[in-house]
Amino acid sequence: MNSILKLEGIHKSFDKQDVLRPLSFALNHGERICILGPSGCGKSTLLQLVAGLLRVDGGVIEMDGKCVDSLKDFTPPEKRPVNMVFQDYALWPHMTVRQNIEYGMKRSKTESTMRKQRLDHLQTMLQLEGLLDRLPSQCSGGQQQRIGMARALATEPSILLMDEPLSNLDVKLRTEMRSELASLLSDLETTVLYVTHDMLEAFTLADRIMVLRDGGIDQFAEPHQLFNRPATPWVAQLMGYHNKLSGSYTIHKSVVLAEGQCISGQIMNHGMAGQRAVVMVHPQHITVGSEPEDGAFNQVQVWVKQSIFEGIHWRIIMQTKDNQSVHAFNTEYIEPGSVRWLQFRSEQTMIYRGGTEPENG
Prior knowledge:
Elements: E1 3-14, E2 17-28, E3 32-36, H1 43-51, E4 58-63, E5 66-69, E6 82-85, H2 97-107, H3 112-125, H4 141-154, E7 159-163, H5 171-188, E8 192-196, H6 199-205, E9 208-213, E10 216-221, H7 223-228, H8 233-238, E11 243-249, E12 254-256, E13 262-264, E14 266-267, E15 276-281, E16 287-289, E17 297-309, E18 314-320, E19 325-330, E20 339-345, E21 349-353
Parallel strand pairs: 3-8, 3-9, 6-7, 7-8, 14-21
Antiparallel strand pairs: 1-2, 1-4, 4-5, 9-10, 11-12, 11-15, 12-13, 15-21, 16-20, 17-18, 17-20, 18-19
Protein backbone atom coordinates (compact mmCIF):
# COMPACT_ATOMS: atom_id res chain seq x y z
CA MET A 1 0.00 0.00 0.00
CA ASN A 2 1.34 3.44 -0.97
CA SER A 3 2.11 5.91 1.81
CA ILE A 4 0.74 9.42 1.41
CA LEU A 5 2.48 10.65 4.57
CA LYS A 6 5.76 9.49 6.04
CA LEU A 7 7.51 10.74 9.18
CA GLU A 8 11.06 9.58 9.85
CA GLY A 9 12.83 10.30 13.13
CA ILE A 10 11.02 13.56 13.80
CA HIS A 11 11.37 15.30 17.14
CA LYS A 12 10.30 18.59 18.66
CA SER A 13 11.33 20.53 21.77
CA PHE A 14 10.09 23.65 23.51
CA ASP A 15 12.44 25.50 25.90
CA LYS A 16 14.86 22.54 25.75
CA GLN A 17 12.07 20.20 26.89
CA ASP A 18 11.38 17.28 24.53
CA VAL A 19 7.72 17.24 23.49
CA LEU A 20 8.17 14.62 20.78
CA ARG A 21 10.98 12.10 20.97
CA PRO A 22 12.28 10.74 17.64
CA LEU A 23 9.38 8.81 16.12
CA SER A 24 8.55 7.36 12.72
CA PHE A 25 5.38 6.12 11.04
CA ALA A 26 3.53 6.15 7.71
CA LEU A 27 -0.08 6.95 6.77
CA ASN A 28 -1.46 5.11 3.74
CA HIS A 29 -3.92 6.38 1.14
CA GLY A 30 -7.51 6.10 2.46
CA GLU A 31 -6.36 5.06 5.93
CA ARG A 32 -7.61 6.53 9.22
CA ILE A 33 -5.07 6.72 12.02
CA CYS A 34 -6.07 7.93 15.48
CA ILE A 35 -3.40 9.36 17.78
CA LEU A 36 -4.50 8.42 21.30
CA GLY A 37 -3.07 9.62 24.57
CA PRO A 38 -3.51 11.91 27.60
CA SER A 39 -3.09 15.68 27.64
CA GLY A 40 0.53 16.73 27.21
CA CYS A 41 1.72 13.58 25.43
CA GLY A 42 2.46 15.42 22.15
CA LYS A 43 -0.67 14.60 20.09
CA SER A 44 -1.55 18.13 18.96
CA THR A 45 2.12 19.03 18.46
CA LEU A 46 2.46 16.09 16.06
CA LEU A 47 -0.61 17.22 14.12
CA GLN A 48 0.68 20.80 13.89
CA LEU A 49 4.01 19.55 12.52
CA VAL A 50 2.18 17.66 9.77
CA ALA A 51 0.04 20.74 9.04
CA GLY A 52 3.13 22.96 8.83
CA LEU A 53 2.06 25.15 11.77
CA LEU A 54 5.26 24.11 13.55
CA ARG A 55 8.68 23.09 12.23
CA VAL A 56 10.56 19.93 13.17
CA ASP A 57 13.76 20.12 15.21
CA GLY A 58 15.00 17.02 13.46
CA GLY A 59 13.88 14.26 11.12
CA VAL A 60 11.91 14.42 7.88
CA ILE A 61 8.23 14.73 6.94
CA GLU A 62 7.27 13.59 3.43
CA MET A 63 3.95 13.91 1.58
CA ASP A 64 3.45 11.98 -1.64
CA GLY A 65 7.17 11.23 -1.65
CA LYS A 66 8.22 14.90 -1.40
CA CYS A 67 9.95 16.42 1.62
CA VAL A 68 7.78 19.13 3.21
CA ASP A 69 9.80 19.60 6.42
CA SER A 70 13.36 18.95 7.54
CA LEU A 71 16.23 21.05 8.86
CA LYS A 72 16.92 22.08 5.23
CA ASP A 73 13.51 22.21 3.54
CA PHE A 74 10.10 23.57 4.49
CA THR A 75 6.79 23.79 2.64
CA PRO A 76 4.35 26.29 4.21
CA PRO A 77 0.87 25.12 5.34
CA GLU A 78 -1.01 26.68 2.42
CA LYS A 79 1.08 24.68 -0.07
CA ARG A 80 0.59 21.31 1.62
CA PRO A 81 -2.20 18.95 0.46
CA VAL A 82 -3.79 19.00 3.94
CA ASN A 83 -6.66 20.68 5.73
CA MET A 84 -7.47 20.78 9.42
CA VAL A 85 -10.58 20.58 11.60
CA PHE A 86 -9.86 22.26 14.92
CA GLN A 87 -11.18 21.56 18.40
CA ASP A 88 -13.07 24.88 18.47
CA TYR A 89 -14.04 24.63 14.75
CA ALA A 90 -12.34 28.04 14.07
CA LEU A 91 -15.23 29.32 11.95
CA TRP A 92 -15.26 32.94 10.82
CA PRO A 93 -17.98 34.48 13.06
CA HIS A 94 -18.81 37.32 10.65
CA MET A 95 -19.27 35.00 7.66
CA THR A 96 -22.33 32.90 6.86
CA VAL A 97 -22.10 29.12 6.73
CA ARG A 98 -21.96 29.34 2.93
CA GLN A 99 -19.09 31.85 3.04
CA ASN A 100 -17.17 29.76 5.56
CA ILE A 101 -17.40 26.66 3.38
CA GLU A 102 -16.52 28.53 0.19
CA TYR A 103 -13.61 30.45 1.75
CA GLY A 104 -10.85 27.96 0.91
CA MET A 105 -12.21 27.30 -2.57
CA LYS A 106 -12.20 31.01 -3.36
CA ARG A 107 -8.64 31.41 -2.09
CA SER A 108 -7.53 28.56 -4.33
CA LYS A 109 -9.47 30.16 -7.20
CA THR A 110 -11.76 27.19 -7.76
CA GLU A 111 -14.07 27.88 -10.70
CA SER A 112 -17.58 29.03 -9.63
CA THR A 113 -19.43 26.08 -11.19
CA MET A 114 -17.19 23.63 -9.37
CA ARG A 115 -17.63 25.60 -6.12
CA LYS A 116 -21.40 25.28 -6.40
CA GLN A 117 -21.20 21.54 -7.14
CA ARG A 118 -18.99 20.91 -4.11
CA LEU A 119 -21.15 23.12 -1.88
CA ASP A 120 -24.32 21.30 -2.94
CA HIS A 121 -22.67 17.92 -2.37
CA LEU A 122 -21.29 18.85 1.05
CA GLN A 123 -24.51 20.39 2.36
CA THR A 124 -26.40 17.23 1.44
CA MET A 125 -23.75 14.84 2.75
CA LEU A 126 -23.31 16.72 6.05
CA GLN A 127 -26.99 17.58 6.51
CA LEU A 128 -26.51 21.35 6.33
CA GLU A 129 -29.59 22.15 4.23
CA GLY A 130 -31.29 25.31 5.45
CA LEU A 131 -28.21 26.50 7.34
CA LEU A 132 -26.15 28.10 4.57
CA ASP A 133 -27.36 31.65 5.19
CA ARG A 134 -26.98 31.51 8.98
CA LEU A 135 -24.03 32.78 11.00
CA PRO A 136 -22.08 30.17 13.01
CA SER A 137 -23.45 31.64 16.25
CA GLN A 138 -26.95 30.72 15.05
CA CYS A 139 -25.98 27.04 14.74
CA SER A 140 -25.73 24.32 17.38
CA GLY A 141 -22.46 22.71 18.43
CA GLY A 142 -23.10 19.65 16.28
CA GLN A 143 -23.95 21.82 13.29
CA GLN A 144 -20.79 23.91 13.76
CA GLN A 145 -18.75 20.70 13.88
CA ARG A 146 -20.23 19.62 10.54
CA ILE A 147 -19.65 23.10 9.07
CA GLY A 148 -15.99 22.90 10.09
CA MET A 149 -15.74 19.53 8.37
CA ALA A 150 -17.45 20.84 5.22
CA ARG A 151 -15.02 23.75 5.02
CA ALA A 152 -12.05 21.39 5.45
CA LEU A 153 -13.36 18.96 2.81
CA ALA A 154 -14.33 21.64 0.29
CA THR A 155 -10.78 22.04 -1.01
CA GLU A 156 -10.48 18.24 -1.41
CA PRO A 157 -7.28 17.81 0.67
CA SER A 158 -5.21 14.66 0.30
CA ILE A 159 -5.01 14.41 4.09
CA LEU A 160 -7.61 15.57 6.61
CA LEU A 161 -6.18 16.49 10.03
CA MET A 162 -8.63 16.46 12.95
CA ASP A 163 -7.68 17.81 16.39
CA GLU A 164 -10.22 16.49 18.92
CA PRO A 165 -13.18 17.88 16.92
CA LEU A 166 -15.79 16.30 19.23
CA SER A 167 -14.34 17.33 22.60
CA ASN A 168 -16.44 20.50 22.94
CA LEU A 169 -19.75 18.67 22.47
CA ASP A 170 -21.90 17.39 25.32
CA VAL A 171 -21.83 13.64 26.06
CA LYS A 172 -25.04 12.76 24.17
CA LEU A 173 -24.12 14.74 21.05
CA ARG A 174 -20.53 13.47 21.13
CA THR A 175 -21.79 9.87 21.14
CA GLU A 176 -24.11 10.58 18.20
CA MET A 177 -21.45 12.46 16.22
CA ARG A 178 -18.85 9.74 16.84
CA SER A 179 -20.89 7.16 14.92
CA GLU A 180 -21.98 9.69 12.30
CA LEU A 181 -18.40 10.81 11.71
CA ALA A 182 -17.15 7.23 11.41
CA SER A 183 -19.78 6.50 8.75
CA LEU A 184 -19.03 9.73 6.88
CA LEU A 185 -15.26 9.23 6.77
CA SER A 186 -15.74 5.64 5.65
CA ASP A 187 -18.07 6.72 2.81
CA LEU A 188 -15.65 9.44 1.71
CA GLU A 189 -12.62 7.11 1.83
CA THR A 190 -10.76 10.13 3.20
CA THR A 191 -7.20 9.81 4.48
CA VAL A 192 -7.33 10.99 8.09
CA LEU A 193 -4.94 11.71 10.94
CA TYR A 194 -7.15 12.14 13.99
CA VAL A 195 -6.14 13.27 17.50
CA THR A 196 -8.17 12.22 20.54
CA HIS A 197 -7.86 11.34 24.23
CA ASP A 198 -11.09 9.27 24.06
CA MET A 199 -10.52 5.52 23.64
CA LEU A 200 -14.06 4.83 22.37
CA GLU A 201 -13.67 7.58 19.78
CA ALA A 202 -10.40 6.05 18.57
CA PHE A 203 -11.90 2.54 18.43
CA THR A 204 -14.92 3.79 16.45
CA LEU A 205 -12.98 5.82 13.89
CA ALA A 206 -9.56 4.22 13.40
CA ASP A 207 -8.06 1.62 11.11
CA ARG A 208 -4.97 1.84 13.31
CA ILE A 209 -4.33 3.53 16.65
CA MET A 210 -1.07 5.12 17.73
CA VAL A 211 -0.71 5.39 21.50
CA LEU A 212 1.51 8.29 22.49
CA ARG A 213 3.10 8.70 25.92
CA ASP A 214 5.59 11.38 26.89
CA GLY A 215 6.25 12.17 23.23
CA GLY A 216 6.99 8.61 22.13
CA ILE A 217 5.00 5.72 20.64
CA ASP A 218 4.09 3.05 23.20
CA GLN A 219 2.15 0.94 20.70
CA PHE A 220 0.85 1.26 17.14
CA ALA A 221 -1.73 -1.35 16.13
CA GLU A 222 -5.24 -2.12 14.92
CA PRO A 223 -7.93 -1.52 17.58
CA HIS A 224 -8.58 -5.19 18.39
CA GLN A 225 -4.85 -5.90 18.68
CA LEU A 226 -4.39 -2.93 20.97
CA PHE A 227 -7.14 -4.10 23.30
CA ASN A 228 -6.34 -7.82 23.30
CA ARG A 229 -2.53 -7.51 23.36
CA PRO A 230 -1.51 -4.23 25.06
CA ALA A 231 2.28 -4.02 24.69
CA THR A 232 3.03 -2.24 27.99
CA PRO A 233 1.40 -1.94 31.42
CA TRP A 234 0.65 1.70 30.64
CA VAL A 235 -1.23 0.82 27.43
CA ALA A 236 -3.07 -1.95 29.30
CA GLN A 237 -4.25 0.57 31.88
CA LEU A 238 -5.35 2.92 29.09
CA MET A 239 -7.37 0.04 27.61
CA GLY A 240 -9.17 -0.46 30.93
CA TYR A 241 -7.05 -3.23 32.46
CA HIS A 242 -7.23 -1.53 35.86
CA ASN A 243 -6.64 -4.65 37.96
CA LYS A 244 -2.95 -4.96 38.82
CA LEU A 245 -1.70 -7.87 40.90
CA SER A 246 1.98 -7.98 41.78
CA GLY A 247 3.84 -11.22 42.41
CA SER A 248 6.88 -13.38 41.70
CA TYR A 249 7.57 -14.64 38.18
CA THR A 250 8.24 -18.39 37.88
CA ILE A 251 10.02 -20.58 35.34
CA HIS A 252 6.57 -21.92 34.38
CA LYS A 253 5.67 -18.52 32.89
CA SER A 254 3.23 -17.71 35.64
CA VAL A 255 3.03 -15.38 38.62
CA VAL A 256 2.71 -16.42 42.26
CA LEU A 257 0.98 -13.95 44.56
CA ALA A 258 2.17 -13.44 48.12
CA GLU A 259 -0.45 -15.87 49.49
CA GLY A 260 0.77 -18.62 47.13
CA GLN A 261 -2.01 -18.50 44.52
CA CYS A 262 -0.64 -19.00 41.00
CA ILE A 263 -1.78 -17.01 37.93
CA SER A 264 -0.94 -17.93 34.33
CA GLY A 265 -1.30 -15.61 31.36
CA GLN A 266 0.17 -14.07 28.22
CA ILE A 267 3.80 -12.93 28.67
CA MET A 268 3.81 -9.51 27.01
CA ASN A 269 7.48 -8.49 27.39
CA HIS A 270 9.56 -11.61 26.84
CA GLY A 271 12.83 -9.69 26.73
CA MET A 272 12.45 -8.35 30.26
CA ALA A 273 14.24 -10.00 33.16
CA GLY A 274 13.53 -9.99 36.88
CA GLN A 275 11.74 -12.08 39.45
CA ARG A 276 8.87 -9.63 39.94
CA ALA A 277 5.92 -9.28 37.57
CA VAL A 278 2.63 -7.46 37.25
CA VAL A 279 -0.56 -9.28 36.27
CA MET A 280 -3.20 -7.08 34.59
CA VAL A 281 -6.81 -8.17 34.06
CA HIS A 282 -9.78 -6.24 32.67
CA PRO A 283 -12.79 -6.09 35.05
CA GLN A 284 -15.03 -7.36 32.23
CA HIS A 285 -12.95 -10.53 31.94
CA ILE A 286 -13.51 -11.56 35.57
CA THR A 287 -16.32 -13.79 36.85
CA VAL A 288 -17.13 -13.66 40.57
CA GLY A 289 -18.12 -17.07 41.98
CA SER A 290 -19.01 -18.52 45.36
CA GLU A 291 -16.73 -21.56 44.98
CA PRO A 292 -13.66 -22.42 42.87
CA GLU A 293 -14.58 -24.27 39.66
CA ASP A 294 -12.76 -26.79 37.53
CA GLY A 295 -11.63 -25.59 34.11
CA ALA A 296 -9.04 -23.56 32.26
CA PHE A 297 -9.32 -20.56 34.55
CA ASN A 298 -7.14 -18.67 36.98
CA GLN A 299 -8.67 -18.86 40.46
CA VAL A 300 -8.04 -16.24 43.15
CA GLN A 301 -9.74 -16.06 46.54
CA VAL A 302 -10.89 -12.60 47.65
CA TRP A 303 -12.93 -10.73 50.25
CA VAL A 304 -15.65 -8.33 49.11
CA LYS A 305 -15.09 -4.79 50.38
CA GLN A 306 -17.82 -2.86 48.55
CA SER A 307 -20.59 -3.21 45.95
CA ILE A 308 -21.40 -0.08 43.91
CA PHE A 309 -24.42 0.10 41.59
CA GLU A 310 -23.44 1.65 38.22
CA GLY A 311 -26.69 1.25 36.31
CA ILE A 312 -26.18 -1.73 34.02
CA HIS A 313 -24.08 -3.64 36.56
CA TRP A 314 -22.63 -3.67 40.06
CA ARG A 315 -18.96 -2.82 40.48
CA ILE A 316 -17.60 -5.27 43.06
CA ILE A 317 -14.47 -4.04 44.86
CA MET A 318 -12.53 -6.86 46.46
CA GLN A 319 -9.25 -7.60 48.22
CA THR A 320 -6.85 -10.53 47.93
CA LYS A 321 -5.24 -12.24 50.92
CA ASP A 322 -2.19 -9.99 50.58
CA ASN A 323 -4.36 -6.82 50.45
CA GLN A 324 -4.24 -6.18 46.69
CA SER A 325 -7.37 -4.53 45.28
CA VAL A 326 -9.43 -6.06 42.45
CA HIS A 327 -12.51 -4.71 40.64
CA ALA A 328 -15.05 -6.80 38.69
CA PHE A 329 -18.54 -6.32 37.28
CA ASN A 330 -21.49 -8.42 38.44
CA THR A 331 -25.20 -8.51 37.63
CA GLU A 332 -26.16 -8.75 41.32
CA TYR A 333 -25.23 -7.12 44.63
CA ILE A 334 -22.71 -9.02 46.76
CA GLU A 335 -22.62 -8.48 50.51
CA PRO A 336 -19.41 -6.80 51.80
CA GLY A 337 -17.38 -9.21 53.91
CA SER A 338 -18.29 -12.19 51.73
CA VAL A 339 -15.59 -14.60 50.59
CA ARG A 340 -15.60 -15.12 46.82
CA TRP A 341 -13.49 -16.71 44.07
CA LEU A 342 -12.38 -14.79 41.00
CA GLN A 343 -12.16 -16.69 37.74
CA PHE A 344 -10.49 -15.37 34.58
CA ARG A 345 -9.00 -17.00 31.51
CA SER A 346 -5.25 -17.19 30.96
CA GLU A 347 -5.55 -15.87 27.38
CA GLN A 348 -7.18 -12.70 28.74
CA THR A 349 -4.56 -12.20 31.42
CA MET A 350 -1.54 -10.00 30.68
CA ILE A 351 1.79 -10.58 32.47
CA TYR A 352 4.52 -7.94 32.39
CA ARG A 353 7.89 -8.96 33.79
CA GLY A 354 10.12 -6.69 35.79
CA GLY A 355 7.46 -5.61 38.25
CA THR A 356 6.85 -2.32 36.43
CA GLU A 357 3.69 -0.61 37.62
CA PRO A 358 1.66 1.43 35.12
CA GLU A 359 2.23 5.15 35.41
CA ASN A 360 -0.63 7.57 35.73
CA GLY A 361 -1.21 9.80 32.72
